[in-house]
Structures are given as structure tokens and as C-alpha cells.
Amino acid sequence: MSFDQYERSTAAGNPRRLYEFVRGGQRWRYTGGDRDFQLDTQTFRAVAISDDGIRQSGHVASDVLTITAPGDFDVARLYRGLPPSTEVAVVVRDIHEGDTEARVSWVGRIAGVNRPRLETSEVRCQSLDAALGQPGLRLAWTRGCPHTLYDRNCRVNPEAHRLPALLATVAGNVVTAGAFGLHPDGWLAGGFLAWDLGEAGIERRGIRFHEGERLILLGAGDGLRVGQAVVAYPGCARTIAICHSKFANAPNYGGVPGLPGKSPFDGTPVF
């Protein structure tokens, strides 16, 4: 029988819902019920998992898919501190026992995780349509540069300024390495620290403070340990002077240093 025939039947259908979470090359697969489910070569582990139903109303807030799972849910653990720097994709499939056709019912990403009770995790997921429908940022006239460092508008090549290092100490969100002391204090502030998590991909944390060999990160980093190989990228103060002296990137500076402090629209008859 096909999937549609199982769906229309009155007694032959035995539906199973399959959940797949993807972060880089790392995948977690789950299904509700009392036993694991095998789909081709993939095993979906049986846990106490369910959702509040798939909706397509057109309203972002109403279409959020909430997945309820145990308190020690592996995916929820990623969000106990700061969320991962790369998004976690979610794919929901429906299938019937005895069938090999798994229909993709929903695709999106994790928007956040709540723990209403110690034994329960609630994973809030946002559909791709909702993500694409969000308004973008508007570019404004400012003296400071509005571009994100190393993006396509900034055009600075991050690999030309990378600083490899081996961590000497790790204490929460404070890390030290001898290579960090090769640059003056504040050189790396506003940049980010990157390290390889293997199948999960590259993890990043912003650098809030730099002094000597010590960095204070914006939150503790998953997988950071003594001896960990990391790469630090310097930050930018978003002024024309720093853009020119630090990155030699003045032609791509996005601000207007000579912007007057008086607006032509403030009602003054003579500007």
C-alpha cells in the first residue's frame, strides 16, 4: 500500500512521526513510541517526543511548531547556555508501520528551547516560510560603519587576519593563550573566536574583552578545553581611522565620516 492508501484506510494505518535535527554534519533522529524505527539505513530512536500539530495559518507566531521532549533531550542541551552559533535545522516526516515511503511534512529550524519543568523540554521551531518572511535591516546614514565585519559589504578577508592559538587555560567564558599577547590590548575585542567541533561544524563566540593573553568571550563555549586549537579574528571599532590603519579597507568603509550634525529636516529655513 502507498502512503496515501494508508492515510485513507480506516484500520490499516499505523502512523509514526519521525523527527530529525541537523547541525552541520551531526544528526539526531527520534520518534515517539515504545521502540526504535528503522528507515532505510537510518535509526530513529524511541523517546517520549511529540508536537502540538503542524499549522499553516500564515502568521509567524501561530505557525510555531512546539516539540515536547524529555528534560535530558540531547538537542535541548545545546541551548542550556548560549545557543549554537549555527542554526539547527528540523525535518519532520510521517510514515506508517510496514511502509517505506516517509513523507516530509514540515521543514524549519529551532528558534529556542524552554524547560517548563525539570523533566520536560519544549523545542520551539520556526518554519522556513516564517524565516524568509522576516523584515531585513535598513541601511542608515551614520558616521560609523554599519557593515558587519568580514561580510560581503565590508569585504575584509578574515583569513588574512586570522590568529591561530592553543588555549592555555579555560575558565567559563575566560580563555588564555600565548598567541593572544602578540597583539596590543583590545586588538581582538569585537571579533570572534572559532574552533572545530567535528561533525557539528565550526562554533564561534564573540570576543568582549582582550587584555594581554586573556580573552573574555560572550558566553562559555561548547567544547573548549585546555590545549584546544582555536582561531581568533580581530574586531573593528567601525571608525574610518581603524578601518584604514588596521585593515587597509577605507575604500569599502560604509559610514560617512563627514556627516554634519545638523539635519536638513529639522525645520530650520537655512541649512
Automatic annotation (TrEMBL):
InterPro entries for the chain: Phage_phiJL001_Gp84, Phage_phiJL001_Gp84_C
Record domain Bacteriophage phiJL001 Gp84 C-terminal: where: 186-262
A Pfam short name: Phage_phiJL001_Gp84_N
Name of this chain's protein: Bacteriophage phiJL001 Gp84 C-terminal domain-containing protein
Organism field: Lysobacter enzymogenes
